[in-house]
Amino acid sequence: MRNDTASKPETIFRKDYIAPGFWVDTVEMGFDLDLSATHVATRMTMRRNHDSSEKDLVLFGESLKLLQLRMNGVNLKKSAYKIEGETLRIANAPDEVTLEIETRINPLKNTSLSGLYASNGNFITQCEAEGFRKITWFPDRPDVMAKYTVMLRADKKKFPVLLSNGNLIEEGDLGDGRHFAKWEDPFKKPSYLFALVAGKLVCQEENYKLKSGREVLLQVWVEDGNLDKTQHAMDSLKNSIRWDEERFGLELDLDRFMIVATGDFNMGAMENKGLNIFNTKYVLANPSIATDVDYAGIESVVGHEYFHNWTGNRVTCRDWFQLSLKEGLTVFRDQEFSADLVGTATGRAVKRIEDVRLLRQVQFSEDAGPMAHPVRPDSFVEINNFYTVTIYEKGSEVVRMYYTLLGHDGFRKGMDLYFERHDGQAVECDDFRAAMADSSGRDLTQFERWYSQAGTPRVKVDAIYDAEAQTYSITLSQSCPATPGQTEKLPFHIPVAMGLLGADGKDIPLHSVAYEAQAGATSLVLELTEASQTFVFTGVSSKPVPSLLRNFSAPVVLEIDYSDEELGLLLANDSDPFNRWEAGQRLATRRLVKLTTAVQQGEELSLDGMFIEALRATLNDASLDPAFRELVLTLPSEAMIAEEFKVVDPQAIHTARQFARATITEHLRADLLSAYEGHLTPGKYSPDAQSMAKRGLKNLALSYLLEWSDESTFELAKTQFDDAENMTDRLAALTALTNFSGTDKQAKSAAKSLKAFYKDFKKEALVIDKWFMLQATARTTDVAKIRDLMEHPAFTLNNPNRARSLTFAFCNANPSRFHAVDGSGYALWAELVIALNKLNPQVAARLARSMDRWKKYPESLQVHMKAALQKVADTKKLSKDVLEVVSKALA
Ligand code: PHE
Ligand code: ZN
């Protein structure tokens, strides 16, 4: 057992919020940069906040060597302040204070990648959420906003480039081989948006003209040798700037905007004011190293960070419980950005389907597990554990519901009012809701429950057709399962977009007394606000097929009994492309669940003709966007199938899904082959939506074709691998080859390709990540193989991308192997979490989450899982991050 209560970390509650005792107006910082001993001098002017009940002057600090502390020019004696843990308190401070603080820090030893750290000989900072306190003592909380001036000094040879937020106002030599650069950020900001970068970097730069005519300087900074991989990030940045002007009327407020790529980063990227810092994964791309998925990821993350400049930076969060205020809104904005860039209606739907797939697979699962929390949490132990799919993706769904309820123009009005009211402030989720309510005149009181109640609501559908009265009545009943700390839930305000299809598959004009103003429309947004409500449609001349929750209008589970025939009709005809896809997924899920049960009971497996023919029809329908066809043809993932069961049997699910894939291939071989041949994209690689869609369908066809052991398809993949002119095709072929089960000779040939791939891309870290990931998720890769790969000279736990590529991929994306019946996967997991805990608590805690749903597995596995969790929980010097995750799992 863990020793005692003394080591039990403190829980922080939203209800305990107290405004800061002192505001900070200006911050001047001087850095003498040295990899193992950086000296930081900070001078800040502070003023008492008379409205706060906090009378002390409170600063936070972590892992700092405090060299000096002066208040209003006087050195403070040890007795004049009190340090307890991360808190430094000065009692009886005057109302106006100038604090001067000197600290020394060791970036080289900072493996947490939070605060100031070294990456490949360069200096990088990461201050969100609470990293600034690892640089200096400071009121490190987002509601304290100040203007910063930053002086950087360093060796000129080793650190020729010196960057910080805002504008460069002075630079020059200091003699003795050192130089300096002085930066000034004209906007006040919270400390979590502070950044500096220093080192050997090169940049692609461009002058860009804003709509207003003002010229700005855009830069993408990378390590030497990567300048051939920055064009897509630069294009994405320009698209982002233009989009925010056009869609939201928001202009870039600085004269210079910089992106820096680093190979050592805990997350995707960070929106520091004017100096975004990115994981290389979301910057570097050229056709030979990056896939279509990478290109799309870069576009959306560059957009995301840029959009934060208004939603996050200009208007920020009052406290970290409000994190979704900036993250949910900014995800919504980046999703809309990507959708608008594609432009077409099906392109938008494809993007929507991809986003919903992620939400369901990861967020619904989080919402059903021990870490479930509301979009605006009530408590946390470690804020870093709350950068979750609930805060981001569900948060975005909540914003999208305003959009659905208020309409395009109504939503824009709400956004305008939000900025008009709160520019330059640190605010709460409720302020955003108030702006939406006040600008539209709508009562959004009940809508607040989306922020306060965790769990995924379920909406049950009962429908009755009255032929005589020609009415169709839909009864919607909502409920929400209990989540940790919340047993009772009140009804949500749920927008349910819907339509009715006639027997011909066409939309029926809708007439409902409750929605008179929209009489005759073919799509309506019903508003479900009570536990149960009935909506009656009149003038319905024959029994319709309902299409509900169109475009996934709310983050709920829709429980509805469709017949196969009805689903077939929806799949073939629904005017809402999201629900067309959804119908196909329902058909597939139903079958995969049945197959899984059959596997468990040792029954013979079979797949019916109706389903296969529906897939064939979709695959061959040239009028459909290939990207849409690819989505329909992609079976629900093993994780999604698992959600259908009370008790999860990963091996049975895997067997069932593989059987389905092989059977589909058996029947659709000719169709798949012509889909393959019909969607080649010869010539120069281009990451446009159309070419991506073609490659996507072609490579899906390839992966199916290789489910059927056969010489010619193996050769097809081999040829594609050898001749590929881009990473998308090369990686797809290699994945198919690696997962192919054929003759020994073929296995040898596949292994040879894998080797060649490594050799060809040895110098490209992001490609070697793919090489590890591909093997981590291969069907034949077991725990022993992972241990082998961990011994590979290119593997290290020190780099988050590399650690994730092998170990996270295995624990999260290879369920039938990770959940090996002997528990060896869990033992490996425990070892990894413990090892990572010492290096990087944030990354360790992420991996710890792989065990969240352990209570969903059979007893025989639970025993091993519990032991592994307990082993981690019993580890000495466990970080708050990991401790919170494992103790919640064990609770
Ligand atoms: N705020 C970043 C984003 O969403 C994510 C992030 C959080 C990055 C914490 C680093 C550390 O864009
Ligand atoms: Zn963000």
Automatic annotation (TrEMBL):
EC number, as in UniProt: 3.4.11.2
Cofactor(s) of this protein: Zn(2+)
Catalytic activity: Release of an N-terminal amino acid, Xaa-|-Yaa- from a peptide, amide or arylamide. Xaa is preferably Ala, but may be most amino acids including Pro (slow action). When a terminal hydrophobic residue is followed by a prolyl residue, the two may be released as an intact Xaa-Pro dipeptide
Occurrences of domain Peptidase M1 membrane alanine aminopeptidase (ranges): 233-450
Pfam families: DUF3458, DUF3458_C, Peptidase_M1, Peptidase_M1_N
InterPro entries: Aminopeptidase_N-like_N, Aminopeptidase_N-like_N_sf, PepN_Ig-like_sf, Peptidase_M1, Peptidase_M1_dom, Peptidase_M1_pepN, Peptidase_M1_pepN_C, Peptidase_M1_pepN_C_sf
Gene Ontology terms for molecular function: aminopeptidase activity
CDD domains: M1_APN
Keywords linked to the UniProt accession: Aminopeptidase, Hydrolase, Metal-binding, Metalloprotease, Protease, Zinc
The keyword Zinc belongs to this UniProt entry's keyword annotation: yes
Residue ranges of every copy of the Peptidase M1 alanyl aminopeptidase Ig-like fold domain listed in the record: 455-560
All residue ranges annotated as the Aminopeptidase N-like N-terminal domain in the record: 32-193
Every Peptidase M1 alanyl aminopeptidase C-terminal domain range: 564-891
Family, similarity comment: Belongs to the peptidase M1 family.
Protein name: Aminopeptidase N
Species name: Undibacterium umbellatum
